[in-house]
Design a protein that fits this description.
The two termini are about 25 Å apart. With about 750 residues, this protein is α/β, with parallel strands linked by helices. Helices cover about 45% and strands about 15% of the residues. α7 packs parallel to α8. It has 4 domains: about 150 residues, 3-Layer(aba) Sandwich (Rossmann fold); about 160 residues, NAD(P)-binding Rossmann-like Domain (Rossmann fold, 3-Layer(aba) Sandwich); about 130 residues, 3-Layer(aba) Sandwich (Rossmann fold); about 150 residues, Rossmann fold (3-Layer(aba) Sandwich), CATH 3.40.50.10750. The chain has 32 helices and 21 strands. Strands 7-6-5-8-9-10 form a 6-stranded mixed β-sheet.
Length: about 750
Amino acid sequence: MPRTRFTREDALNFHMHPSPGKFEIQATVAMTTQRDLSLAYSPGVAVPCEEIAKNPELAYDYTNKGNLVAVISNGTAVLGLGNLGALGSKPVMEGKAVLFKRFADVNSIDIELDTEDVDEFCNAVRLMGPTFGGINLEDIKAPECFIIEQRLKEEMDIPVFHDDQHGTAVICAAGLINALHISGKKIEDVKIVLNGAGAAGIACIELLKRMGAKNENCIVCDTKGVIYQGRTDGMNQWKSAHAITTDHRSLDDAMIGADVFLGVSAKGAVTPNMVASMGPNPVIFAMANPDPEITPEEAHEVREDAIVATGRSDYPNQVNNVLGFPYLFRGALDIHARAINDEMKIACAEALAALAREEVPDEVAMAYGKKLTFGRDYIIPTPFDPRLIHRVPPAVARAGMDTGAARRPIVDMDAYELQLKSRMDPTASILRSINARARAAQSRMIFAEGDDPRVLRAAVAYQRNGYGQALVVGREAEVAAQLKAEGLGDAVGELTVVNAANTEQLETYKSFLYNRLQRGGFDSTDIHRLAARDRHVFAALMLAHNHGDALVTGATRKSAHVLNLINHVFDARAEDGAVGVTALLHKGRIVLIADTLVHEWPSDQDLAQIAIQASKVARGLGLEPRVAFVSFSTFGYPVSERAEKMHQAPKVLDGMKVDFEYEGEMTVDVALNAGAQEHYPFSRLTGPANILVVPARHSASISVKLMQEMAGATVIGPILTGVDKPIQILPTVSTVNDIMNMAVLAASKVG
């Protein structure tokens, strides 16, 4: 998988737009009427206050405490950057909060404490305890992190979890369970060598010992060599706890005959000779970031039987903490846990390991562009496996209940698992799948408007993110100047600029165009003007002649005008079967609206074809189509001439024997609301519709823009479908991200 590339400016822009930072606070209750305000605040808020004062446990019922985690740091060990201070750590803590929400629907807020004093830090966190259901400590240097975590665990009655320690340990343990399973070894028998005696390393070895690894079989090394009984140089109480009696003094010595290597140290710490000296079927977890102690390629050159994991996403078997902490806290919060104990961590590791041994769903394979099967290159689940949310938290919750950590045990575990499934936003996995398919396709993407800075930034991002080659239509000097003006001067040599003025293909393009348009009132001068001077037409001609694989255009001109120009080269009219489908993403739902681009006032026959094309787009997005023909009328009432064609369109489909659900006509609330659908038991829809076929383009435009402006829905499209080649037409208001999304859709051939 190509490694994602981005500039410092890309990263800064991401954190600045559309608003500074990475999350905001939204109300979960209505706040529109005076009654709402009276209930939310004074005087109504006094009632739950009084109840909580009498019974503190009710805070979990009447406040967000039970689903709120604080991500807390003092910034003394930020990523691999060192001590950046409290404020310097804030982007990382915000990011951690976003991951909690994305992967486990845990609300989280970042808190940066401007102190390196252990007492001050602990007092501050302890005093905030009533606010939160759990505390996630992050990026605190050793040994202070050990002291802080232990003190807070003793002083607080909610989970306190230092992810740099235990998150890494849990995922490491999960991978090791499966690696030993493959190699036919038992944890109590293997020789384990750990290099890196910091927070993560110590936590890893301690958890493995709790799982059965024998103390005498575990050798811990740091920068000064083996930690052995009697060593005094560079020691502390946490290292001393793992000192053993041994003659080994160096990592080289320790690696001889070792079954397992765990690295939480530095790039290049392990040599091929060390790997060669290990026992049969060696397990190597080279987890240093961003570069491992030894790469999988280097390890496999000397040991084909090695099972290798790293912290990198571009290698198999990524040891990624995001597989652990969201689900650990999800399970802990849902039982109102007093702590996250070792049994809960082990349960998390075992659940992850068991999941990796199961057959991988097709949607996961689609997301990663390859079939994943349990084995040496797949011992840990992928972060975007949708099963994680309903498989791991129940295991954690059970362990918490069995060990007495739960304040409120879960009675119906089956119902709990169903509830977990409903928590997650399906749109995220859909978009992930599209991106993975685009990356696998490696399409040559034609960006027609090389004079627009948004388009150029998107083209650079497309190529640097590993989706394929970006072909920019424009003048070389102008493109270079624009890139430099945008701070992307280093990308001048990366993009392929195609200039109509000096292309060798121009005569071929003109001949093709003349043959299409000569009986439509176009003479040779017109043809030259179109082919050589109109970038939309030129880009379409490139695509028609396979000099690119897909096209995005329209950022600088109205879509109707651009579509008309495209029609000079391709058959993209209503009568040709072309349809525009817009995807609306809002509050975890995705709904497609059609036709949003081509048909002005479709007939019932047109509406049926629109439904067919929209269903193809839905399946391209990973959705099973459920089509509703929407109107102001529902199943014939009220009677209206304007609703008649929507009434007839399903009958047209009846005669076509299509393979998707459809129904109509109906109002939008009936189409999208399962409760409203219950009043119409004869309806053929088995659930809320995910495709709305509307009466006309103007109603489609109004609906989309209303949802975008009033509800804040994410809009992708219109997605042009029913054309021979992947072409996507951009709205003129497109942002860089919008252009990227459309390019990815074109590359993955969704339309």
